[in-house]
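B., you asked whether I could sanity-check this one before it goes into the benchmark set. Here's the sequence:
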Amino acid sequence: MVSLRTLLRRRRGVEASAASGAPDAGVRITAGELIRLRLAARDLRLGNRRPALSTSAGAHASRFRGRGMDYLESRGYQAGDDIRNMDWRVTARAGEPHIKLYTEERERPVVVMVDLNPGMFFGTRGAFKSVVAARAAALIGWAAVRHHDRIGALLFNGRHQELRPLGGQRGVLRLIRALVGATDPVEGMRQPYHPGLLTEALRRLRRVARPGGLVFILSDFYGIDADTRVLLQRLREHSDVVGCQIHDALERHSPPPGRYGISDGSRTALLDTHSTAQRAAYERYFTQQHQAVDELLRACAVPLIQLATTDDVVERLRGRLADRGLSTAGSVGVAA
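And here's what the prediction gave me:
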């Protein structure tokens, strides 16, 4: 929440900054900043809880069939499985299709899905939520290529940009270029918002996230609906998924008593927080929203990392990704 007058001043400042070529680290990101995060990502551990299902040699045990690989087990066929791995004997015995699983060292595709809906171009302290998301995505990208994984992305800011997983420095530099373009605050605040954006992106995500990979969803999660759980559960059938919820301090606590002009980009309203009851209702709404996100991800066995706009993203991710609790469902820490 922010007054319309303040929002317009901030927007004019962003446009002036763009015209002068002097970037503001709080509202926009630069390629140079994201490239410098390479060293900070050295100690970032992305973990490896499930064998990967990729086809390129790398540092993770996989289930891809090939010469010199060890048979692991057979299981029921799932959409997307390679039919060349069919276990015909078990299929005939069980009456249902089964495939053989093998183990070998393979690369793992890592995909970051970055939600850049208009509400992400907001922040009262520290930085815009979009800037925090870009920093986190770049850190994950550098950590992935450092561990010989491939990095891909799905960015959506009114338009969708899909980056197929690509290995090496080329993969992360491609991601950085895309992040800089997609997080332009002037364009971002002009995009209309509709509640189905997150669900639409999750549907598209299945085309980018390959089986056996690791997926990070960077969002404020205000767009969750009845379909979100179904899509997350389907994604979890073949991939490890981590949710990163990005929030601002004003989404935790009511602003001081006063009257505030608010807008979603197309409609305007007046928020009056003079009364204690109104401030309590404000905080109750956001508390229920955060609880709904936490309960949804728990139900889908998706670990949750919470990032505040005032957090040191490097330290926050380093601590949470190293936390053993990340291997189980639920939140792994709430930012102060």
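One thing to flag: Confidence is low (pLDDT under 50) at residues 1-22, 49-68, 327-336. Otherwise nothing jumped out at me.
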